[in-house]
Specification:
single chain; 17% strand; binds zinc ion
Length: 817
């Protein structure tokens, strides 16, 4: 019997790749007509009714809709006005072929909307459906490659505004409520469908013939007035730039944007209705150049998504990296020329390469393009390889094929796949036929295989850098590696990758390294005084150190202390101070720390006092409080904390004072309880106070109290505030206490799978990294290795997270001096 047949094949939870493929083959021409009745009370249910029209070209199996909510929330399912039988299982609604026909179908479903992705507060709500969360609200085919049109009607309390992707068609009053009817949208993916309703302020402006509306919640009128024109102008400028670059007019009907006070991301690119975090756009009066550039960048980024992501959308979520890289790539082109005072090359170098290497040098790294078997695991794709390596690779591609060919190819890609879906390989095919270069092979190496190349200097006369034996066979990393030579008397110094654009590790001889250190930032030298050159060399020296190519930890620490006073660039200073802290806590034995302590404390303290730049001063302060160990340094910290010592131009925020109190507590030299209590009493911000209350047990001098804190984290309700949990974990695993924290490692790993289910997408990575951050012993990393051995079938993504987290502790255990 057909009926029992498809019942036995209930699809798994989420959207599996097979389900995605089958639906893509058999269903098309989808149109949703959705009506929702939104009550004024945030706890009252939202009732909905929707009609899904679609074309079905095969009747050989049951139709599967996604609805990831309480099964009792489905009230009725009708086909062409007739009630039909359906089954609810594994977050799906399953309709047997009996209720359907080949060709055009029309299902009408009555339901109660799930609240999970509606972000309901007292006065407003907004949706956030990326990546597969539309199905938590209403039944649909929740996969990006089944693009559909949406016709939405929202009934909302009187006085509320309502916004969605489509233009407003009519606004009428009905029995004390206001009904907003939106026009049918262009075909869009389900994760891009959005609406918001509530009490919003509203400002309209037309810039260069383009009408735009901004909705917001901010009540500070002066703040709004100070920012609004610039926000409209930045959008108008970005959209015009993109129309010009792509030669495609803005592809959706209208353009609005909404600002929410604690939006989860910087922005979300819903077509025609971008959502932003309010604080990213409404800047304070004394906003820095960096804050202004960040605002221009997020606006350009979301605007670029209207073409890259919204008009042409990934076919499956494993290509999610592509839309993000495109958006950043375009945003950089749009925004950078307006900020000539910023060294964009250095920023790009330090923001991307070190973070990408941090994952790519580990045994747990992954390719940019990964396998994704089920949409419900889309969150596990995100990480440094997508955010940090992929942008580097995209820049390499443009450098390889040229700016002109890149633009032509992207234009063709957008035109070919407009209002449809495309894969990375579709773009590669377009480029490949325009150039004699083997772009498909280039993509195989850079995008489809993991890891970073390593180069060594060949011993032949006129030698150059050559790729070392690779972990993946038959792989040539096509990239130019520049070389600078300096000859001083008899010695020839060689510096690979002086422009900092090549990706990988470039082995460097010790004489060249020491020349670089001895002549650091030498005035008048066109190369050594160039910030990008210094950045590229520092990153490379660190990579060499981690691979055991020297110098040893003590020498490298001395090198860093020697060059710090010669560095005035804030980005490079921060980079150096980050390495200093790693060396100090992970790569030096207790004995060495004692030996170097006076010098490290003196250099950082002196520079903290001598530096004029307020930002750099803050960086030195943060480093000093992290590395301070002696009684003298403790006293300095304590005096800064209790204000008996004030350093000119060093303003300490409430956050700084709290973290000073924490550092004092961990050192345990004074009355810990009294310090924390005093800090608690003087903390004014109520959010910070409750956060402190949560974190304080993790700082306790009593091991039993710390154990109890850790024990409490086993309950999911105690892990809800993830940032607080991470604060607590980093205290438990502070290097000064790592010996007593060894016992938390195994239970933390045992919890990881549960954490992936209960936590936000970034939490498993952060949980694992923070857990191992303070450890640098073989004992600690052996626990992780044993755990992985005992779980041979452990999920691939989580296994990688563990391998990534123990990479640095493993190297530290090996290199510790
Ligand atoms: Zn984005």
């Amino acid at each position: 019997m057909g009926c029992t047949d498809h019942k036995s094949k209930v699809p798994e939870k989420g959207v599996s790749y097979q389900l995605n493929e089958r639906r893509k083959k058999t269903i098309d021409s989808i149109r949703y007509n959705i009506q929702l009745d939104i009550p004024g009370e945030k706890n009252e249910a939202i009732k909905g009714i929707e009609t899904i029209s679609f074309n079905l070209n095969a009747l050989d199996s049951a139709l599967v809709l996604d609805f990831n909510s309480d099964s009792t929330h489905i009230i009725s399912v009708q086909s062409e006005g007739e009630e039909i039988e359906f089954e609810v299982a594994n977050q799906h609604i399953i309709v047997g072929p009996g209720g359907l026909k080949k060709g055009h179908n029309k299902l009408t479903i009555g339901f109660i909307a799930g609240n999970l992705s509606l972000n309901r507060s007292e006065e407003y709500l907004y949706t956030l459906f990326v990546p597969d969360r539309a199905s938590t609200c209403f039944p649909l085919f929740d996969q990006p490659n089944l693009k559909a049109t949406y016709t939405l009607t929202l009934s909302v309390p009187d006085g509320w505004e309502a916004v969605s992707n489509g233009s407003l068609k009519s606004k009428t009053s009905r029995s004390g409520k206001c009904v907003f009817q939106f026009a049918e949208t262009k075909p869009i993916s389900s994760y891009l469908f959005a609406f918001a309703a509530g009490k919003f302020f509203k400002t309209e402006k037309t810039v260069k013939g383009r009408p735009m509306t901004m909705y917001y919640r901010e009540t500070d009128v002066a703040k709004v007035n100070r920012n609004k024109d610039e926000i409209f102008n930045l959008h108008a400028k970005s959209l015009s730039w993109l129309e010009d670059y792509t030669a495609i007019p803005y592809p959706f009907e209208k353009f609005d944007f909404l600002l929410f006070p604690s939006f989860q991301y910087g922005g979300m690119e819903h077509p025609g209705s971008i959502f932003y975090n309010e604080s990213a756009l409404f800047l304070d009066e004394n906003a820095s150049v960096n804050e202004k550039m960040a605002r221009a960048s997020v606006i350009a980024h979301e605007s670029a998504h209207m073409w890259f992501g919204d008009l042409v959308t990934m076919d499956w979520f494993n290509d999610v990296w592509l839309k993000e890289v495109f958006a950043n790539f375009m945003a950089a082109k749009i925004v950078h020329p307006s900020f000539p005072e910023i060294n964009h090359e250095l920023r790009f170098l330090l923001a991307h390469y070190p973070n990408a290497y941090e994952v790519d040098r580990t045994a747990g790294t992954n390719p940019i393009l990964q396998d994704l078997r089920n949409l419900k695991n889309a969150g596990t794709l995100y990480g440094a390889i997508i955010y940090m390596k992929a942008p580097i690779v995209m820049r390499q591609l443009e450098r390889k094929i040229g700016v002109k060919l890149m633009r032509e190819s992207l234009g063709e890609y957008l035109k070919n796949y407009a209002y449809r879906n495309a894969r990375w390989d579709d773009l590669i095919r377009i480029i490949d036929k325009k150039t004699p270069l083997d772009i498909a092979d280039w993509s195989r190496v850079w995008v489809k295989t993991p890891g970073m190349p390593e180069y060594a200097f060949s011993t032949e006369p006129n030698g150059k850098y050559i790729q070392k034996q690779d972990s993946v066979s038959n792989r040539t990393w096509q990239q130019p590696v520049g070389l600078k030579r300096i000859t001083i008397g008899q010695s020839h110094h060689k510096f690979a990758n002086p422009e900092g654009t090549a990706y990988g590790y470039f082995q460097m001889d010790s004489a060249s390294k020491s020349y670089f250190v001895m002549n650091y930032n030498k005035t008048g030298d066109s190369m050594l005084s160039k910030p990008v050159f210094r950045g590229a060399m520092l990153v490379n020296v660190w990579e060499g150190f981690l691979r055991g190519d020297g110098p040893d930890a003590g020498q490298l620490l001395k090198d860093v202390l020697r060059i710090l006073p010669k560095e005035k660039d804030p980005l490079l200073t921060d980079y150096l101070l980050g390495r200093l802290q790693s060396l100090w806590w992970s790569f030096l034995s207790d004995e060495s720390r004692k030996k170097y302590q006076p010098e490290v404390e003196k250099v950082t303290w002196d520079l903290l006092n001598a530096t004029k730049d307020k930002g750099i001063k803050k960086s030195y302060f943060r480093t000093f409080k992290r590395i301070a160990l002696s009684d003298d340094a403790y006293q300095k910290m304590e005096s800064l904390w209790n204000k008996t010592l004030v350093i000119e131009d060093l303003t300490l925020s409430e956050e700084d004072n709290i973290s000073l109190a924490y550092e004092l507590a961990i050192r345990g030299k004074g009355d810990v309880k009294a310090i924390l209590q005093t800090q608690m009493d003087s903390t004014k911000n109520p959010d910070r106070k409750t956060r402190m209350q949560f974190v304080i047990p993790s700082l306790s001098q009593s091991e039993a109290e710390r154990d109890a804190f850790f024990e409490s984290l086993k309950k999911p309700e105690n892990r809800e505030k993830e940032a607080w949990v991470l604060d607590g974990l980093s205290n438990l695993h502070h290097p000064l206490r790592s010996a007593s924290a060894i016992k938390y490692l195994r239970p933390s790993l045992d919890l990881l799978q549960e954490i992936q289910i209960t936590g936000d997408i970034f939490f498993p990575t952060r949980w694992t990294n923070t857990t191992f951050s303070g450890h640098s012993s073989a004992e600690a990393t052996d626990i992780a290795a044993k755990f992985l051995r005992e779980h041979p079938d452990y999920p691939y993504f989580l296994r990688n997270k563990v391998l990534q987290a123990i990479d640095m502790p493993q190297r530290a255990a090996r290199l510790k001096r």
